[in-house]
Amino acid sequence: MRAVKNLLVLYTGGTIGMLQTAEGLAPAGGFEARMREHFAVCGDAPKLQWSLRELNPLIDSANMQQANWLAMREAIVEAVERDGHDGVLVLHGTDTLAYSAAALSFLLLGLPVPVLLTGSMLPAGAPGSDAWANLVGALNLFESGLENGVQLFFHGQLLHGCRASKLRSEAFDAFKALPRQRDGERAAELPARLDYRQPRQPVSLAVLPVFPGLAAGLVRGLLDSGIQGLLLECYGSGTGPSDDQALLDVLHDARQAGVMIAATSQCPEGAVVFDTYAAGSRLRDTGLVSGGGMTREAALGKMFALLGAGLDADSAEHWFALDLCGERA
């Protein structure tokens, strides 16, 4: 825990900096000037030194893609390694804020500075907006001291980057840490391949919920599309239609062909424990790796970081099953 002296504010777009257009709210540049103007007249200016960089292009976070995650990682690494910043605040839209927090948690493993993400439900300047409260609250945390690693701050709550989910579409307290089971073994050390300095590549991934009537043909079509990883959201403790041999065969064949397939629970307070039911054991035996109590956001971000580092399915599964930054422990 240490106070940050030289902060980078990385503005990616999102509601916090949007302005009204003929088509509705849209990301707008010039947010550094708006921040400095606000602090000049409101008297709550942070004492720490900060500068702002706009990530080009600014986006509505509903348009978030893997390329944007990679651009954020690159900008953050440059800020620390080249420009000497000792903390980074990422301003981000709320629709995919939890996804980006999770992805960056794994893309920045070992980074020796704190990274904090925040945003707002209403634009800065809108009547009754939460933007300035979230922004000033985040800056105050940097002044008082933060642990290294990625965290999310919203509506007065400081949340682990891999444990947050957006649960409300309109309320200011939109984000919560779901009470999911944490029982993963902590990795003794991180391989150099997963260090924050190592660039990543885009990965073809898919997320598929298990549902009554899920057909083997649908899953086969998805797997045959060339995806490298599949996140299967199972029932309860990791169960699914285990009496559908055709479906089990599709999953088994895809894993044998080198596709990584991981399982999470659909339940907000759930965790995958395959051996609880025979239905879970049969799914596990096709080659699925358990996501334990990880959220969808954490499991997807972790899969992206592992496969994007060039690991094959076997190596990726090994590290997926271990706790790397507090996502499973």
Automatic annotation (TrEMBL):
Gene3D superfamilies according to UniProt: 3.40.50.40, L-asparaginase, N-terminal domain
Top-level taxon: Bacteria
Pfam entry (one): Asparaginase
Residue ranges annotated for the L-asparaginase N-terminal domain, each copy included: 7-179
Boundaries of every Asparaginase/glutaminase C-terminal domain copy: 206-320
Active site: 15, 94
Membership in a protein family: Belongs to the asparaginase 1 family.
UniProt cross-references to PANTHER family, sorted A to Z: 60 KDA LYSOPHOSPHOLIPASE, L-ASPARAGINASE
Protein name, entry field: Asparaginase
Organism: Pseudomonas muyukensis
Lineage of the species this protein comes from: Bacteria, Pseudomonadati, Pseudomonadota, Gammaproteobacteria, Pseudomonadales
